[in-house]
Amino acid sequence: MFDISKSDYLVLKQAIQECRNFVLEKVNETAISPDARSARVNDLLHDLNQFAGEYKNVRDANYIQAGMLAMSVFRAKTGELSNVSMANCTQNGSGVLKETTNFYNGLMTRLKELFSEIENGFSRISHNDLRIPFKADGWHHDIRALNEHNQ
Amino acid sequence: MHEIEMDESSLIISETDSRGIITFANDDFIRYSGYSWDELLGKPHNILRHADMPRVAFKDLWDTIKVGNTWNGFVKNRAKSGAFYWVYATVSPITFENGETRYLSLRRKPTRAEIKKYDALYKTMH
Fold first, then answer.
1. Which of A2, B47, B50, B91 could form a disulfide with B76 if both were Cys (CB 3.0 to 4.6 A apart)?
2. Within an 8 Å CB–CB cutoff, is residue A68 touching chain B?
3. Looking at domain B12-123, does it have CATH number 3.30.450.20?
4. Do A85 and B24 touch (CB under 8 A)?
């Protein structure tokens, strides 16, 4: 087949299978050695090993990005609102995670603004400082809108 | 002591500061380690270190992440009960808006073949 010996064919087939298992995350690591007899097959094995290494960088970046996102959501549950770094999206990470992180950061920024407005409103109430009326579209309007969406 | 095997769907997440002090651990971390959140917060991450793990593995980890790179490796952890559990770890530095660097660690289930391979390898490294 393709002018290669049976042993080299089996080495190549095994390497492709290892790559498949790695991409499908059936294994956590893979190392493909160019130990075929044919120089051309070894060249293919070298490429496969390189592609697996490049895929590993993508996989790591996605895991780290997803981990940061998960960690931030866990923290938000306890009231610690923080944005997530996009550093792992920019080089190797997936576009889906980039968009998700963008939306998440936008939500966190808006929530922080909202809580800041609420804090400011309560501060004014507690200091009997209501000389300037609350804006009709202020934080109480946002909370009402949130409640309406939840009903 | 017996082995605790990770579920396929489990993902252990933790974060440490630059000295390896735990600043975050998710529910799966608590579940497999057997420690409560109060017991983990502020403790060094090596609270999980198993005596079978060679020191050189952790040196390699710190040497890698201290220069800003991501480290991958197989780690045998010790739970509070004394039981052990193997993980495949991905550890990476993360930088916050204020410039502070912390380390994020994600751990997934290794295969039996991987555990067998690294169990044997680590025994030769002591």
1. B50
2. yes
3. yes
4. no
Residue with the bigger pLDDT between A116 and B117: it is B117
Q: DSSP letters along chain B, please? A: -PBPPPPTT--EEEEE-TTSBEEEE-HHHHHHH---HHHHTTSBGGGGB-TTS-HHHHHHHHHHHHTT--EEEEEEEE-TTS-EEEEEEEEEEEE-TTS-EEEEEEEEPPPHHHHHHHHHHHHTT-
A29 in contact with B, Cβ within 8 Å:
yes
pLDDT one-digit tens code per residue, B5-40: 999 999 999 999 999 999 999 999 999 999 999 999
Per the CB < 8 A criterion, the answer to whether A12 and A34 are in contact is no
Give the whole-angstrom CA distance, residue B69 versus residue B63: 9
Domain layout of chain B by residue ranges: 12-123
Residues B38-55 have pLDDT tens digits of 999 999 999 999 999 999
* pTM (2 d.p.): 0.84
